[in-house]
Design brief:
By secondary structure, the chain is an alpha/beta fold. 35% of the residues lie in helices and 15% in strands. The protein is built from 12 helices and 12 strands. The strands form 2 sheets. Strands 8-7-6-9-10-11-12 form a 7-stranded parallel sheet, with helices on both faces. It has a 5-stranded parallel sheet with strand order 2-1-3-4-5. Strand 6, helix 7 and strand 7 form a beta-alpha-beta unit. The protein is globular. The structure holds nicotinamide-adenine-dinucleotide and D-malate. Nicotinamide-adenine-dinucleotide binds next to helix 5 and helix 7.
Length: 310
């Protein structure tokens, strides 16, 4: 019987599918030396974002046929190294779209009304209503950077909230943007005009530090930025400086240049910043979706059926 190693927490629905065709070992939080030591025993590896599947892991996985990422981003997997060894890499491009979009929208509304800080204040025994005077999103301009699956759902909901929508995405047409109620503009204009900016693009060499000291300086002092895409698209030090100095009004981040977030000036910011620990895909529904989606693909490959690669 083939063997599958599951090295991050995966919903039981996915484990049940894998168990139909394979022996499934769930071993989470493995140090990388330990993973490298045991991976040669396995035909398939299933991960979320916690496991770094490096070239060393891939080279040690002599029997590996497939690596499954229960989520969208495969940036924790060395895909070129896997391809060189003929190992298929699969993901779940749509399983957590709604979860991530809803998290970004929740961040935008929480930033506007200081909900996390107000909650902490009441729980600490205070009743401070003046400190938490918020702003409305109605009739404000939302700039969406990356109008793919998540960005498009954010647009649909934001439109229902009465927001005006700008989008920047070099790979989609103005017609497509208009269908979702967005005016496609260049990035400079979006950053200058938006009251809220939300990022929904992949991290690539081109998008690393896309939001930096220079671009932050072009934003309105009332602008608030949300990043539920990938850490490193925003230069965190430049962002912390911009918030501290009042150059922009705030930020809500779910993803960081280095995860888990270590010592960081982001942690020292007041209620103008909201930080969550990479929770975009953390809904019951999304975790079932991605687990089933990826487990089915691993099962098929172990049965000798063709794969749909990431
Ligand atoms: P998608 O592929 O459907 O959309 C990405 C969009 O970004 C595409 O339309 C693409 O054309 C656009 N894009 C690419 N390069 C760009 C650039 N330089 N400038 C502007 N736009 C650019 O992907 P998606 O499913 O919508 O996911 C978006 C991001 O969210 C990914 O980075 C993904 O890894 C991340 N994500 C995070 C979480 C989380 O837990 N926080 C959950 C799911 C997805
Ligand atoms: C993804 O790319 O799907 C997200 O980062 C969510 C996750 O970590 O599973």
């Amino acid at each position: 019987m083939p063997k599958v190693l599951v090295s991050d927490p995966i919903d039981q629905a996915g484990l049940d599918i894998l168990s139909q065709v394979a022996q499934v070992d769930v071993k989470t939080k493995l140090p990388s030396e330990e993973l490298i030591k045991i991976i040669s025993n396995y035909d398939a590896l299933m991960v979320r974002s916690g496991t770094r599947v490096t070239q060393d892991v891939i080279d040690a996985g002599k029997q590996l046929k497939i690596i499954g990422r229960a989520g969208v981003g495969v940036d924790n997997i060395d895909v070129p190294a896997a391809t060189r060894r003929g190992i298929v890499v699969v993901n779940s491009p749509e399983g957590n779209t709604i979860a991530a979009a809803e998290h970004a929208l929740a961040m935008m509304l929480s930033l506007s009304r200081y909900i996390p800080a107000a909650d902490q204040s009441v729980k600490a025994g205070n009743w401070d209503r003046k400190r938490f005077l918020g702003v409305e999103v109605y009739k404000k301009t939302l700039g969406i950077v990356g109008l793919g699956k998540i960005g498009s759902h954010v647009a649909t909901v934001a439109r229902a909230l009465g927001m005006k929508l700008l989008a920047y995405d070099p790979f989609i047409s103005s017609e497509r943007a208009e269908q979702i109620g967005c005016r496609l503009v260049d990035l400079d204009l979006l950053l200058r005009e938006a009251d809220y900016i939300t990022l929904h693009l992949p991290k690539t060499p081109e998008t690393t530090h896309l939001i930096n000291a220079e671009s932050l300086a072009t934003m309105k002092p009332t602008a608030r930025i949300v990043n539920c895409a990938r850490g490193g698209i925003i230069d965190e030090e430049a962002l912390a400086t911009a918030i501290r100095s009042g150059q922009i009004a705030g930020a809500a981040l779910d993803v960081y240049e280095s995860e888990p977030l270590g010592t960081s000036s982001l942690r020292e910011l007041d209620m103008a910043a909201i930080l969550t620990p990479h929770l975009g895909a953390s809904t019951e529904e999304a975790q079932v979706n991605v687990a089933i989606d990826v487990a089915e693909q691993i099962r098929d490959v172990l049965l000798g059926l063709p794969a749909r690669s990431a």
